[in-house]
Structure formats: C-alpha cells, structure tokens
Design goal:
- This protein has 114 residues and is an all-beta fold.
- It contains no helices and 9 strands.
Length: 114
C-alpha cells in the first residue's frame, strides 16, 4: 500500500480512499504507556461508532483526540488515560452533543528518530 501526505488533515492517508484507513502520529501523552507522542497510529474510519470498548480517534468540542473509551450502562462514556498522571474523564449525555467518533485505532508502531 502506498501512502500520500494529506495536508488538510495533517496526516497520511492511503492513495485508495476506499480502504478508509488513516495513519496519524500520536498527538499527546494521555495514552503514554500504550503509545507515545509521535508514534504512528493506524485508524479504521469505517468504524465510526463505539462498537466495543477500545481506543478511538474522536472529535470532542472541535478537538481531535485519541482516547481509550469505555461505555457505561448509564449511557455515559469514560475516557480512560493510560498515563497515570491524568484523571479519568466522564462524558454525560450533554457532553455527547459535541462528540463524534472518527475511527478506531487498530494498530500502532513505536516511532524512533534516525
């Protein structure tokens, strides 16, 4: 598979858009211990609903984030940090009005600078 730079989304996308896979860099340290800022993340944008508890690219209040998400029976969502320096975030129904699932992270690679 060949990739081309997508300047509009500040990431990499497959040349064949029918694959619906996006390759992004890790963007913060919320998920440290699983992956780090700069690691490569493969995101399947066909999965744009929370079909299971997993790690997703989401858009929350206009900001793109990579977060581990757990669904709760109370219709709340938990954003669970893998970095213990961060607090658990609970999203209630009102918060979900500004919430969108972009895709699920299906693979990651550790980045090494050479």
């Amino acid at each position: 598979m060949y990739l081309q730079i997508d300047q509009a989304n500040n990431g990499l996308i497959p040349i064949d858009p029918s694959l619906k896979l996006v390759l992004l860099h890790g963007i913060d340290d919320f998920m440290s211990n699983t992956f780090y800022n700069g690691d490569l993340l493969l995101i399947d944008t066909r999965i744009n609903t929370l079909d299971c508890d997993s790690i997703y690219e989401i858009k929350l209040q206009g900001q793109h984030l990579i977060r581990r998400i757990q669904r709760m029976p109370s219709n709340q969502l938990l954003l669970i940090p893998d970095n213990k320096h961060y607090q658990l975030i609970t999203l209630n129904q009102a918060s979900l009005l500004n919430f969108e699932v972009i895709g699920r992270v299906i693979q990651s690679w550790k980045a090494q600078r050479h």
